[in-house]
Design a protein that fits this description.
- The protein has 210 residues and is α+β, with helices and mostly antiparallel strands.
- Helix content is 19%, strand content 28%.
- The strands form 5 sheets. Strands 1-14-4-12 form a 4-stranded antiparallel beta sheet, with no helix packed on it.
- The longest helix has 15 residues.
- The radius of gyration is 18 Å and the shape is globular.
Length: 210
Amino acid sequence: MSQYRHPEHPEIMISSNEVVNGKAYGVPRVGNFWHQDSSYTDNPTTYTLLHGINIPRWSGDTLFSSAGNVYDRLSQHWKDKISGRDAVHTVRKRFKIRPEHAGYSITELMKKADELHPPVTHPLVKIDPYTKLPYLYGAKDYLDYVIGFDANENQEFLNLVEELVTDPGHGYRHKWTKGDLLLWKTETAYHAVTDVEDNQSRTVHRVAVK
């Protein structure tokens, strides 16, 4: 949304819980769940950059998990089961309800989410063009369902992915300091931000690169 863009450099999205002149300075809550950026779009960005502007001392860390490592830790049973399958990605589970949606039913909200961001299909397993290694493409909150799975299989798989992605023994936790600049490949890195402690400000600038 344009109101959350840098006034001089609109390619920069501002993620912030700060309030300036009574208005939110940036998107107050973004990325607080495990995801791969823009997987709900037809053409996801290639790289993501985050620049630490105003950093709380003890919270607001960013967690990372390798999509290649997540795939590697799947059992052979699941690797065989998902081989060649596509999955549908959507914002339905993370659709932000705004004042104009007051009174909408769940069905109407889901329809509105699909109108703004139509569901898209991506291969569930992709190959990195540089390393030639496979990685899993899909996180629980954006991946709606795997094509060809029944409801039980789908839920079992999503729960498994969540378990693998969130395993602290297979990830990296970045503790921010002011001025840090992080860069990662959008599709091959799951990430999430941790909660910011009460009465602490956190502002980071985000740029997506095609």
